[in-house]
Amino acid sequence: MAALLNLRCNQYYYLESTESASVLFRDEHDYKYFFSLFAEKIEPLADLYAYCLSHVSLGLLIKIKDEESVFKYLKFENKFPDEMMTLKELKSLSAAQGLNNINILQLHLNKLFNSFIQSLSNALNHKNIVLQAELLEEPETMRNKVINLHQKVLHQNLVLQIQQWKYSSYNAILSEKPTKIKREELLKWFGGINEFKHQHKITEEIKI
Fold first, then answer.
1. Checking CA distances to 95, which of 58, 72, 169, 177 falls within 20 to 30 Å?
2. Band (97; pLDDT cuts 50, 70, 90)
3. CATH code, domain carrying 106
4. Residues 7-36: pLDDT tens digits?
């Protein structure tokens, strides 16, 4: 299983499973387990902006939280046993003390994300789950990733319209119901909910 490299605080990432001939999510139980595991292991470290899960694919758009939030969580999880240690003190630790003072939080982030992937692999009896991480920096790239993510189920011939697939963030983003997705910020990328729907519709018609 490949490591998720270069995950850094306060950055947006698109995480995607590599193609596999075998089934990833088999039934409702598998989908529910994914969300429970994500809530336990990833939510404290990252905000969720979009997702789409299917029987053969897994895609997420997340933003790693700021250094202070990540540090507090790791400290709560006893990753840094010294209860009095501050973030500034942690980052000043020398390599001679067994830590890289530049990448220390990144190191722990990667370990926890890999733990998440391993737990998911074990639960789904799928030993070859590999996630690739792509850093996103340009607004246009982020918008396109959201659209492409939601459209995966169309290309996989699972539904005829995006809103028909329930294991996707598309309907939650359009809804007014409470959600853990960073809906307001995401909609600002598109210029509002109407433009969000419009851009999805245009690319959907082109690709169909």
1. 72
2. low
3. 3.30.70.1290
4. 888 999 999 987 665 788 889 999 999 999
Residue 2 lies in a domain: no
Domain extent at residue 120: 12-207
Supply the pTM of this predicted model: 0.86
Q: What is the pLDDT of residue 191?
A: 96
What residue type is assigned to position 93 of the chain?
L
40 within a domain of the structure (yes/no): yes
Query: What's the total number of domains in the chain?
Result: 1
Q: In the block, which residue shows the tokens 């979009």?
A: 50
- Long-range contacts, 202-206 (Cβ 8 Å, 24+): 203/147, 203/151, 204/151, 204/154, 204/161, 204/162
pLDDT (tens digit per residue) in 45-80: 999 999 999 988 899 999 999 988 988 888 888 777
